[in-house]
Design goal:
13-stranded antiparallel sheet; Oxalate:formate antiporter; 260 residues; alpha+beta; elongated
Length: 260
């Protein structure tokens, strides 16, 4: 159960109309390290981070650029509820109306939005909501481009990490290049249905690294999702693959017809 080579799968279910992703296998640390944007401040709606700052208008804590480094290294999964959104300047927090504050508190409590989760005054790009970080996360994205960039970076990090800890690898291996967003965008329709990207079941040889993907459906219960994935992956060809040519360092996506 604790074998770090196992449980290397990423589940993605994208809700395009409401701009959020349900995910499993992507932690806060993965997200922060993979997102291609600098986040100046995080408004901490629900958390247990001890090195935060306090805003008197909202009666909520926040993390600035300096404390964010400590937060990204903290045991966020041990917090339980961990909910935040980014913002540019503290002075803009003080301009939020009572209605906007109520909407933000509602998101932290119910992990649902009442109105748009993106606030003009705050200029936020994300809203991050979880009660069990890395296992079941709900993240809102104002733009999909950072999502694809982050996902490509996380997949590559997980492949690199798996190779480094494998008992077959005695020499240090170079990092696997990040997957370009345009490659992952080809799976957008599958992500809308609910997709597992399986680093655990990837195939490696001297020429290529092949990461298979399976469409499993829409889940909020990750135990049920894992059961469905195991059943599908044992009895069905993958619905696609993400393939790295190790000689050129280039990634490509393969559809189910190309896989077969």
């Amino acid at each position: 159960m604790n074998n770090p080579i196992k449980n290397q799968n990423i589940y993605i279910h994208m809700n395009d109309s409401d701009r959020f992703v349900i995910s499993s296998g992507i932690s806060f640390s993965n997200f922060i390290n993979g997102i291609p944007l600098d986040l100046p401040n995080l408004l901490l709606i629900r958390h247990k981070f001890e090195d935060s700052h306090f805003n008197m208008h909202l009666l909520l804590d926040y993390a600035d650029a300096d404390s964010l480094k400590k937060l990204s290294a903290d045991d966020v999964q041990g917090y339980g509820d961990f909910c935040w959104l980014d913002f540019t300047e503290e002075e803009y927090l003080n301009q939020l109306s009572g209605q906007e504050i109520a909407e933000i508190l509602y998101m932290g409590h119910f992990k649902e939005h009442l109105k748009s989760p993106f606030y003009r005054k705050l200029q936020n790009q994300f809203v991050y909501l979880t009660g069990d970080d890395g296992r079941l996360n709900k993240t809102y994205y104002k733009s999909w481009e950072p999502f694809y960039s982050m996902l490509g970076a996380v997949i590559s990090q997980k492949i690199t990490h798996q190779r480094e800890i494998s008992f077959l690898n005695f020499r240090k291996k170079k990092s696997v290049p990040s997957i370009p967003g345009k490659i992952l965008r080809s799976f957008m329709s599958d992500m809308k249905e609910g997709l597992v990207i399986s680093i655990e079941k990837s195939n490696r040889n001297r020429s290529v690294i092949e990461v298979p993907v399976w469409v499993v459906g829409d889940f909020y219960d990750m135990d049920s999702m894992a059961t469905e994935f195991e059943n599908l992956s044992d009895h069905k060809q993958p619905d696609g693959k993400i393939v790295l040519d190790r000689k050129t360092g280039e990634w490509q996506s393969l559809t189910q017809m190309q896989v077969i």
